[in-house]
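quick one, 56 residues, struct below
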Amino acid sequence: MGRGIPCQVGRPLVDVRLAVLIEQPARESLGWGCKRIQGELPVMGTGSVPPQCGGS
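---
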């Protein structure tokens, strides 16, 4: 009587390696905001940039 795969609610999970890569400059450069970190991710070698940081 199950419906199969339940639908996922909320934002998809972020890969652990990507989360570590985002947290590193946030800790090292406290003055950097979300936009600056987001702009630096491609320079640091990630192929993907999360569409949002923090709140909605």
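The mean pLDDT is 74.
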